[in-house]
Amino acid sequence: MLPGPTNVYHCPGCSKSILQWTLASANSLGAKYYSDGRIKAPDFPATVIITQCEDCGTIFWLDREIKVDEFEDDDFREDDALKRDYYREQGAWAEELDKEGWVKAIQKGAFRNPKEEIYLRKKLLWCLNEFFLENKGFLDAEDFLLRQENANNLIKLLDNTAQRDLLLIAELHRNVGNFESCLEVLDLVTEPDLQRMAYGIFKKCRVKDSKVFELG
Ligand SMILES: [Zn+2]
Predict the structure, then answer these.
(1) Ion ligand 1 — residues with CB under 5 Å?
(2) Which of 18, 42, 121, 134 would suit a FRET pair with 175, their CA atoms being 20 to 30 Å apart?
(3) Which residues contact 120 (CB under 8 A, 6 or more apart)?
(4) What spacing in Å lies between the alpha carbon of 174 and ligand 1's midpoint?
(5) Ligand 1 mean position to 52 CA, how many Å?
(6) CATH architecture, domain 102-206
(7) Each residue's pLDDT tens digit, 119-157
(8) CA of 200 to the centre of ligand 1 (A)
(9) How buried is residue 21: exposed, middle or buried, by Cβ count under 10 Å (0-12/13-18/19+)?
């Protein structure tokens, strides 16, 4: 993993400096792929693109328009080293939202287009499914309903004419126990590259297993 420049933003709520690290290059060696589209790559962490300010609680997208500065982590460049020390002293790193953060962002309507809502809902899905998997297939009533509601909304937002979206729609139906609908949608996935994943989901669906699984 090779770090890229660190971007600096100002929180729209309180102007605190928020720092976003970026990657210049990374590899996906040792990555794990899951049936819901989540990728867990130890050497390829996703760059944070929406965050919550720890001081004032504002949730905001790290848009290029509100970027105020950037610096390289390079001791040999005096300007960069000074900026780094300054921003690290008085700023905070942009942290990925947690489950409550994703829910809050969705409920507050912190999205400006369907693409952003899909992003938030996929993140919430992955959060809940990861927890579900670690918790041996158990979710409390609140999370269970949240997962159901989120899946139904995500199904409506996805493009049912795009093959990859169809695969995720099928998986979402399976996750919430709509096995009939899962099979119907799987029938529409015809792209050769997706057949292995589609078959994996099909096999789980046939035995009415709703748990997300790691793709072998
Ligand atoms: Zn703030």
Answers:
(1) 11, 13-14, 16, 53, 55-56, 58
(2) 42
(3) 50, 102, 105, 106, 110, 111
(4) 39
(5) 8
(6) Alpha Horseshoe (1.25)
(7) 999 999 999 999 988 887 788 999 999 999 999 999 999
(8) 44
(9) middle
Separation of alpha carbons 83 and 67, rounded Å: 15
Question: What are the residue boundaries of the structural domains of the chain, listed by start?
Answer: 2-93, 102-206
Nearest one of 159, 152, 124 to 139, comparing CA atoms: 124
- Tell me the one-letter amino acid at 77: R
Q: Are strands 67-71 and 6-10 parallel, antiparallel or unpaired?
A: antiparallel
Dist. CA 6 → ligand 1 center (Å): 19
Average pLDDT, the chain: 93
Q: 97 CA distance to ligand 1 centroid (A)? A: 15
Distance CA 53, CA 80 (A): 24
Distance from residue 95's CA to the centre of ligand 1 (Å): 13
Tell me if the pTM is above 0.85: yes
Residue 210 is which amino acid? Answer: S
Residue 67 to residue 200: CA distance in whole angstroms: 43
